[in-house]
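Entry:
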Amino acid sequence: MDMRGRVNTALKQAMKDRDARRLSTLRLINAAIKDKDIEARGMGEDAGGVSDEQVLAILAKMTKQRQESVRAYEEGGRLDLAEQEQNEIAVIEEFLPRQLSEAEVTEAIGATVAETGASSIRDMGRVMAVLKAKYPGQMDFGKVGPMVKDQLCGK
């Protein structure tokens, strides 16, 4: 089943279960996907809808936004709002692939550096592009960037 189908199935189940928190998060996911559909149509792209890779990118972005909100709410002493954001993150992460461990990320970076023939920091963009294509939603690319840089500078 594609990502859009999984989200819709979960949405219907949340309606049946009368789970209001989960339902609202799933509706936010659906709205973000539909916004991306509309944006793609406006740019003259395929009217078939966004791909699973694009849905993963949307979900990763939504997760990152909520993590930033959690930090801001905790700093502001609004633990109730931080908890609500954490609940949304948990629902969104159900649709994301398993995150790679640090050892797996390091191994993937090494393999990609070897595969691309990267030898200096100037090749970092190429390495990052390959990693993003191979491992969508499986790595925190904010943390991966410095790791790639370290590996390229260490050569």
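The chain has two domains: 3-93, 102-153.
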